[in-house]
Design goal:
With 201 residues, the protein is an alpha/beta fold. The relative contact order is 0.21. The mean pLDDT is 92.
């Protein structure tokens, strides 16, 4: 089966494909993080994969390699306050645009491939690809950078608000996290517009 990149190159010999992905749409707390990456042809693609299927050590190894060998990369954020003000979809698109702008300031971008079924408003051709983080190398790389950056932020948050256990669940609505939120209330980085369902037990 031809890859998405192969199909695109058959249409036009594009250069500088920029992959974009996000991490943190579903959590009850913390920001949403987006990353944008442009990779060179001689990149070691064997280090990449669906970030959700890689171990933390594999993601960290890939992160260092991406940052050292990408043509350009960037990480950007939309805060929990922006999520509450805009809604999570619009805040995610904002973070993606911020990541794109940083990369576009460093190198020319021919086309953006973004994970999912929604495209951010960008001043260049853009294509959304469902499950792109398992199909497109540039999106895989962006997914890895976004996830490692956001996980690191939530580990810092765990040190600041240790009662919530952020280093374990990273802000996602686990049973323990919801139980703590309902029993103890919210901390400053919780998203006020997100409904917290009662734990089952």
């Amino acid at each position: 089966m031809a890859s998405v990149q192969q199909e695109l190159f058959e249409i036009e010999p594009l250069r500088n494909i920029c992959g974009i992905d996000e991490a943190g749409r579903g959590p009850l707390a913390g920001p949403v993080c987006a990353a944008a990456v442009v990779l060179p042809p001689d990149f070691d693609f064997s280090l990449l994969g669906d970030s959700k299927r890689l171990t933390a050590k594999q993601r960290e190894k890939a992160e260092l390699y991406i940052k050292g060998h990408a043509i350009a990369w960037a990480v950007a954020w939309a805060t929990h306050k922006e999520i509450d003000e805009l809604n999570i979809l619009r805040a995610t698109m904002l973070a993606m645009r911020r990541a794109y702008d940083k990369v576009a300031a460093r190198t020319q971008v021919s086309i953006v491939l973004v994970d999912g079924n929604k495209e951010p408003d960008l001043p260049c051709p853009c294509q959304a690809i469902v499950k792109g983080d398992a199909k497109v190398h540039e999106i895989m790389a962006a997914s890895i950078l976004a996830k490692t950056a956001r996980d690191r932020f939530m580990e810092y948050a765990d040190k600041k608000w240790p009662a919530y256990g952020f280093s374990g669940h990273k802000g996602y609505p686990s049973e323990d996290h919801r139980r703590i939120c309902i029993g103890q209330g919210l901390c400053p980085i919780h998203r006020r517009t997100f409904r917290i369902a009662p734990p089952k037990h």
